[in-house]
Design brief:
about 300 residues; alpha+beta; Aminopeptidase; 2 domains; eight-stranded mixed beta sheet; about 30% helix; about 30% strand; binds coenzyme A
Length: about 300
């Protein structure tokens, strides 16, 4: 094999990388737009950690690493996207790319995780159908610590919530789409209940229409649901949350259906409910089914 050259990614690589990604990562096809969102659109994107391996002038492999400060103020490293071109597999390319990234970030982070790089991620872990990837990460010393699932909801169902919303008005419960002027109140509400989601949900205000619905109990913000925050334009729902003291009134189901109705209006036939969460809730209210399983891996460094 000709010697391996490692270089940083450039914006001009996106077209070729997208084509190679779709040839090599069979269960998770992407568009150039999604690849752009995952790399240059990530607030923690680092060119020095987004590496291309070339052999004889041809792209042979790719790996994106990054470092984030989590809501708990921990510095954590992630390997976010990676593949090796089929012809170049089992020649140590993924290992070389990984070790280069690990050596650069090791002194800055307490651990490294695989793919579940919330809030900007493609998949919330490794689908074990990528058997070589499981072999690779376990060989590099990663340990599986959890699993999670993505569900899918069929949008051909009736998603109209107007009657249920009307019924709740007698209890002074109001549900509506967020407005720009709600931004600060939403951030404060999330900070109190789900600090990890503050930045993620704030992105909904950048979309037209704002991809966030809110539930108010006697004028007080008590619940929310969002979509099109990650993997924008792919029918991705979430996150959502209802203040524990306000649960059991049917507000979560309405908020969920409002988002799914918006996704349906975009022309999608199905919505993805990623990284669940309360499987019975989504099954019961919108007949969502588990479609993908992901294993989550981490390595203390
Ligand atoms: C996973 C993947 C990136 C591995 O790339 P690679 O360059 O072939 O991996 P390496 O040659 O560096 O392998 C390093 C180690 O991983 C393990 N490994 C990798 N492929 C393996 C295979 N086919 N069988 C068994 N072990 C394997 C081995 O322990 C290997 O070390 P060894 O050859 O000394 O035994 C590649 O198979 C791939 O692109 N798969 C599809 C895309 C994918 O799964 N992406 C991640 C999820 S989105």
């Amino acid at each position: 094999m000709p010697s391996l050259q490692i270089r940083h990614i450039n914006k001009t690589d996106i077209g070729l990388l997208c084509r190679l990604w779709n040839q090599n990562v069979e269960f998770d096809p992407v568009t150039e737009g999604i690849l752009h969102e995952k790399m240059f659109g990530d607030p923690d994107f680092e060119q020095d950690l987004t590496l291309i391996a070339e052999s004889g002038g041809r792209v042979a492999g790719f790996m994106q690493g990054l470092v984030r400060t989590t809501a708990k103020q921990e510095r954590v490293g992630w390997i976010k996207l990676f593949f090796t071109e089929k012809k170049f597999r089992r020649q140590g390319i993924a290992r070389t790319l990984y070790r280069e990234i690990e050596s650069q970030i090791k002194s800055k982070v307490s651990r490294i995780q695989m793919l579940d790089s919330n809030p900007n991620y493609l998949t919330p872990g490794i689908d074990p159908l990528y058997t070589e990837a499981i072999a690779f990460v376990e060989r590099e010393g990663f340990e599986k610590f959890k699993d999670t699932a993505n569900m899918v909801a069929d949008l051909s169902q009736n998603l109209d919530t107007s009657e249920n919303e009307q019924d709740l008005l007698s209890q002074d419960i109001h549900i509506r789409r967020a407005k720009s002027s709600d931004r600060k109140e939403v951030a404060e509400f999330l900070q109190n209940h789900w600090a990890a989601w503050v930045e993620e949900v704030d992105l909904a205000f950048e979309n037209t229409p704002i991809s966030l619905h809110l539930g108010y109990d006697n004028g007080k913000l008590a619940a929310f649901s969002a979509y099109d925050i990650n993997n924008v334009g792919c029918g991705w729902f979430g996150p959502m949350g209802t203040d524990p003291v306000f649960r059991g009134k049917g507000v979560g189901a309405i908020l969920l259906k409002r988002c799914l109705a918006d996704i349906k209006r975009q022309g999608q036939t199905h919505a993805v409910i990623p990284w669940v969460g309360p499987i019975p809730f989504y099954l019961h209210h919108v007949g969502a089914r588990v479609r993908r399983i992901f294993w989550r891996y981490r390595k203390e460094v």
